[in-house]
Structure formats: C-alpha cells, structure tokens
C-alpha cells in the first residue's frame, strides 16, 4: 500500500521515480480503509531533503500512510521557499487548535545542539508539543536532537559536548534482539552519526522506564525505548541518504571548518571514492517495525488516541 502525498510535493515525484508507491489524497479517499496518520515535525533547515528521507522510509511498508508536515509556529526557515512552507506545512498552533490526532509523530533533529535547550528560540513551544504528544499521538519518534530534547524533557537526561565531532558510520550492538522494533536486525550494524553532543548510558540507566535497544562503546546509546511516554529516541541518522555525510563533509571542507573524514564511510577512507551505504536495510527495518507496531496497537478511531 502507498504513502499519501500531495501530487505537487517534491517527494511525490522523487519517490515515484524510485519505485515507492505513492498516492494522492483524492485517490486515497476512495479506498475503504483507514490510513495511518503520521506527522513530521520538521526542524531541519533543508526541509525538502528531510521530507524525502523520512517519506522514503515510512512509504516502504504495505500500509497506507497519511503523511502530514508540521512546523514550529513562530520560527521562520531561511533555507526553504516560503511558498513551499505555505503550501505543504501546518504550524503546530494550527494542528493543536484543530485537535488533530496522530498515530505517529516524528520530531526531527536540528543543527542547534551547541545551545542549551532553554536557549533555543522555540524551546517553550517544543515543550508544549512534547506534552501534547501524550494526549494526541499514539507513538512519537524523536530523532537526533529531537530525541535528545524529548529524553531531557521527560526524564531530565542531559546532553554533553564532545571534544570532537562524532562523524561517520559507527558500529552498533543489538542490545534487545527480542524487541519488536528490532525484528530482523543483525547482532551488529552500522549507522550514520553526525553530532557534537552525546547522551551518556549511565544517565540513561539512572532514569526509570528507559530501555536502550541499540548502543555503541564509541558513540554511546543509539536507540532508546520509553514505554511510559510511548516514544522512541534515536540519536543517530538511519534516514540519511547515501551522500548526506558527503554533503556535510564537502560543506565543511569548502568553508575551511576543521573536520575529519567520516569514519567507515568512503572505501579505504578516501573521499575521492563513492561512499558506501551500509545502513539502508536496517533503516527500512526499524521504521517498518515502528509502523507495524503502530498498526497493531493504535485505536481504530483516532479520537480514542490518548485515552
């Protein structure tokens, strides 16, 4: 079954050409099933790239997905055309006022990890979003800074600056092979990492109700389940395209910013060679497993979410 997207959203053409099943809302309305409603609270500056990345993953399951894009109310993006934002996005204030409920919500990362949470201009509203998920979202997936924000808000777990950027494809250990979210996962895998901060396993362990599913001796906890808040927190980037780390590396090199060649990414660590994607299959597994859990556990009547 397809993911439902407006025909004019850039991701519609991108995914269609890749063979992902997509459907217009008009076509979806003719089908006698209830699609899963999944929102993307997009905090990344490159909105369209991020839309494509997450739509690609959640559109690869056999279920019909109603994909809705959300932005912070007052924050104005400088990297995406205003027309695109006006056409495809709803502000959180609009979503909250309408009383819209979601089977799933993804809160993306944001390139602001050097700031204390309380100094982020939209932190107060994001706190409202996170509290709102407890009554209006069946399951929330916080990604990178979004996951750090959620685990800090609900559990007080802090983020810590690293001496050097964790940058590359780092091995992870499957710590919970029986978790439904890790169904089909290998015992070890790699995932793209790109951050200046870390969460510490000892602090995660000290917070009641958290379970680390994936982790690394080099980069710390990767994927955490928070059953009480019906949430997953992932601090790394399964959604990255094959060349996303390359784009970041080339950008920093061009700007003269000190940066290491991303670890375990280019063949022979040679930036002149085409990077290898070593995480795609596990990316699809994780998001497919999450969507399957949504399908199995969410109320059929959306209005019953949060009760």
Q: What Rg do the Cα atoms give?
A: 19 Å
Got a strand count? 12
Percent of residues in beta strands: 25-35%
List the total number of helices: 10
Q: Structural class of the secondary elements?
A: alpha/beta
Low-confidence stretches: none
The oligomeric state is single chain
> How can the largest sheet be summarized?
12 strands, mixed
Gross morphology: globular
Separation, N- and C-terminal Cα atoms:
29 Å
**How many distinct domains?**
1
Describe the protein's architecture and organization.
The protein is of the alpha/beta class. 33% of the residues lie in helices and 25% in strands. Helix 1 packs across helix 3. Strands 1, 2, 3, 4, 5, 6, 7, 8, 9, 10, 11 and 12 form a 12-stranded mixed beta sheet that branches. It has 10 helices and 12 strands. The two termini are 29 Å apart. A hairpin with a 3-residue loop joins strand 10 and strand 11. It is globular. The mean pLDDT is 93. It has one domain: Rossmann fold.
């Amino acid at each position: 079954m397809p993911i439902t997207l407006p025909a004019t959203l850039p991701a519609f053409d991108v995914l269609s050409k890749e063979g992902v099943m997509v459907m217009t809302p008009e076509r979806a309305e003719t089908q006698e099933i209830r699609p899963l409603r999944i929102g993307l609270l997009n905090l990344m500056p490159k909105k369209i790239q991020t839309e494509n990345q997450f739509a690609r993953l959640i559109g690869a399951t056999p279920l019909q997905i109603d994909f809705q894009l959300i932005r912070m109310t007052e924050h104005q993006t400088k990297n995406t055309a205003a027309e695109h934002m006006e056409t495809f996005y709803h502000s959180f204030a609009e979503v909250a006022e309408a009383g819209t409920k979601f089977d799933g919500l993804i809160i993306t990362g944001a390139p602001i990890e050097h700031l204390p949470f309380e100094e982020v201009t939209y932190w107060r509203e994001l706190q409202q979003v996170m509290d709102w998920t407890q009554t209006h979202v069946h399951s929330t997936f916080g990604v990178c800074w979004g996951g750090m924000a959620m685990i800090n808000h609900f559990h007080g777990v802090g983020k810590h600056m690293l001496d050097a950027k964790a940058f590359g494809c780092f091995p992870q250990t499957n710590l919970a092979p029986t978790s439904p979210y890790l169904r089909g996962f290998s015992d070890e895998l790699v995932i793209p990492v790109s951050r200046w901060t870390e969460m510490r396993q000892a602090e995660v362990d000290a917070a009641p109700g958290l379970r680390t599913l994936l982790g690394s001796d080099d980069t710390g906890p990767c994927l955490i389940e928070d059953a009480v808040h019906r949430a997953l927190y992932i601090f790394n980037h399964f959604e990255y395209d094959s060349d996303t780390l390359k784009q970041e590396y080339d950008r920093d090199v061009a700007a003269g910013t000190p940066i290491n060649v991303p670890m375990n990414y280019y063949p022979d660590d040679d930036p002149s060679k085409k990077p290898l994607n070593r995480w795609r299959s596990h990316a699809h597994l994780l998001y497919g497993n999450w969507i399957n859990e949504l399908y199995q556990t969410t109320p059929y009547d959306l209005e019953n979410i949060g009760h």
